Amino acid sequence: MITQQARAALSEPVSDAEPPPEWTKNETIQAHLAARATLDVATPLVIQFGSENCALCPKATLDIDAAQNFRSFEWKYNDATSSELAEELEVTALPAMLVFHDLYNYTLYQKLRGLDIKEVIEEQCPPRLVLNAEF
Q: How far apart, in Å, do the first and last CA atoms of the chain sit?
């Protein structure tokens, strides 16, 4: 697994911090930030990058889908071959995913294999409250 562009977990930028990167102006990112402003609890945005030609991408999709049952996050899919966001983030190894908490706290993961997706989501995303589970 390749991890890129991890930022320190800062809820607010330090006064002398550099401005957020240009890619954070992406429509998907901005929509997530706007929706999140109305919620009491902020959940991360997971953007999956894949393509039809990627042999490992269908498993990545199934892994992310399964993780939604137990972890709280918003999930979006981008085709890496046509996504401006993938180009701006320099996604080069699929499957890949961006875990975005806010403008100053995000991580891009590439070349995800085996249990990588499950481990990343467990580390980055809060547990989901499941009320219909049998005890």
A: 36
User: How many whole angstroms separate alpha carbon 105 and alpha carbon 11?
Assistant: 8
* pLDDT tens for the chain, residues 1 to 135: 777 655 544 445 555 567 788 888 889 899 888 888 777 678 999 999 999 999 999 999 999 999 999 999 999 999 999 999 999 999 999 999 999 998 889 999 999 999 999 999 999 999 988 777 666
Nearest CA to 63 out of 107, 16, 117 is that of 117
* 2, 51, 88, 109, 111 from 82: Cα distances, Å: 21, 9, 11, 19, 18
Q: Is residue 133 part of a domain?
A: no
Q: Structurally, how many domains does the chain consist of?
A: 1
Q: Is residue 14 one of the residues assigned to a domain?
A: no
Range of the domain at 95: 2-8+22-124
Sheet containing 2-4: which strands, arranged edge to edge? 2-4, 105-110, 96-102, 45-50, 74-79
Q: pTM score, two decimals?
A: 0.83
